[in-house]
Amino acid sequence: xxxxxxxxxxxxxxxxxxxxxxxxxxxxxxxxxxxxxxxxxxxxxxxxxxxxxxxxxxxxxxxxxxxxxxxxxxxxxxxxxxxxxxxxxxxxxxxxxxxxxxxxxxxxxxxxxxxxxxxxxxxxxxxxxxxxxxxxxxxxxxxxxxxxxxxxxxxxxxxxxxxxxxxxxxxxxxxxxxxxxxxxxxxxxxxxxxxxxxxxxxxxxxxxxxxxxxxxxxxxxxxxxxxxxxxxxxxxxxxxxxxxxxxxxxxxxxxxxxxxxxxxxxxxxxxxxxxxxxxxxxxxxxxxxxxxxxxxxxxxxxxxxxxxxxxxxxxxxxxxxxxxxxxxxxxxxxxxxxxxxxxxxxxxxxxxxxxxxxxxxxxxxxxxxxxxxxxxxxxxxxxxxxxxxxxxxxxxxxxxxxxxxxxxxxxxxxxxxxxxxxxxxxxxxxxxxxxxxx
Length: 438
Ligand code: 5AD
Ligand code: SF4
Fold this sequence. Notes:
- By secondary structure, this protein is an alpha/beta fold.
- The protein contains 13 helices and 21 strands.
- It is globular, with a radius of gyration of 22 Å.
């Protein structure tokens, strides 16, 4: 293994792009490399190995990484011993092609290769190493992760996706669904609780499709809820089709499971939902929202919306706006459709012009701002239990934390990180709330 002159230990700098799953994967990668003897470099300039954990969901994500890579290549030019690796979804998506686009890469490794990273990095080779084997069984269960600080931790309970929505590349880059054994999930959560973590967020591409033998996702929620020390449980992202009675019941009856759900709808047009192969209609989605709200009256809902999917007409788009108004989401993540190679819709191409996509995106963002504002204003006067995360970013002695509905609240109080404080909400913007200790 090569490392910088004078340093006792090889240093690795890891940068993460994309979703919460990638952040959790980076915590796993850090732990694997730490155990193999690597130290963590705070800056690329101090590293012997630079790794980018990447996202392939939209073209824009890939472009950002390619830009960053060419910046980092300059460091490698100055220090040829420096190793540059690209990990994760984009590695899987582009594979050998990447080595042509970025010839200075030493390593290209997909999401199922992390266990082998120390070994791959120790191979000194002239040619880049490409390891993008997907593994139907790899869950990394029991490997342990370097969870970040703070009262909230993310725990991966399942990996992969079997849904194959037409626009999406995830099933190709992350492979088939597989779940972590419940005792491994419970064990990890217990360890986190022992270290002072109060809130766990269970993660998976379609997290509520979790199944291990007899244990489905509703049961898993209850098993984690039985742990002392864990006060709050959340999960992301569920698929509407896997929102079973058992999961809804666990949310409704288990007080630790928080009343917040990110429930991606993607479109408000039945024609689009069918073309996207989402597996539900607008009516079925609305019925699910109705069932959820009946069972969990305090529920906050967020969603994902794609505008400009193949074939989307103005009336399809208007239907999306209509659905957003009808549901009154607390928040929405909105995206312009990006054609992805390997996805089912790839061959259909792009029919909506960039101009129309941009206009539709602005319109959904603007609508969501007003919906979020209305939902947040309705919080004024309520007393919410807030889990303190730390000082507010704006300073001035204020604290910041989340309500059960996952809304950020800024408030003045003397409280420790990880404590839960009752806060009366006094004002709201479309993005956050302010309050006073109740
Ligand atoms: N183009 C635009 N948005 C996409 N998403 C997934 N694939 C694409 C794509 N090809 C969005 C979906 C998904 C979220 C994580 O990213 O809304 O729910
Ligand atoms: Fe992609 Fe659909 Fe799977 Fe979500 S459920 S990861 S959108 S294929």
